[in-house]
Amino acid sequence: MSIVGLNPAVASNTLFAIVERILGALCDAQGWTLDTSKSICVRVVIDAEAHLDLNIYAIPDVKMALLEKAFHAAANRAMDGSAFSSPPPEIRLDPSEIYVAHRTTGWEQSDPLELEDWFVNAAARHASWTDLKRLTRYLKAWRDYHWDSCRLSSLVLMVCAVEALDEANTPPQPGRDDDGLLVVARALSAKIAGVVWNPVVDDKALNDNWTTGCFIEKRSTHRRRA
Description:
Largest sheet: 3 strands, antiparallel
Distance between the termini: 56 Å
Radius of gyration: 20 Å
Oligomer: single chain
Strand order of the largest sheet: 1-2-3
């Protein structure tokens, strides 16, 4: 965090430039593609079916030192085999101390584990009749099939799916992915047309910068059924 404190905007841009230079060399060597169009991450496209999104986080210097000690301790435990007898304790930081770099706004408060906890809890809440993880994968696949570039982020789709299931008057039929997907699909248009709120950050809209042109950049070629 001491690096961020000097000049947040400059620090964010500089860190993005450094990360992209390092990953660019790796992509060239491996035949991958570097995508710098995302606002809060650097994307490494492995192939047509897989990619990695890498975020840049900042935490207080003191907490960073504690994490480094924990990482070294975990590595030593793994080498001597003791990791199998007793797992290391989980380390959780205060969400208010974790920031993610943003290409235009500098830094935003963001704890990735808060979001993970939210989704895991939602999946458990609906586990008796549908598999939320699979439903969101279907939605992401639909998006990726139709658009090369789209503001319809994975998080937006996740939030819409969770809200649709939470608000459903009749739950999906147990064990029926198609019925669960139908419940979500019926609600998706209205959800996207309204404000989609970040589930773990108060008063943070996920679609406040959308325009009518967000979804018009379609794939140039589509596989069509015979």
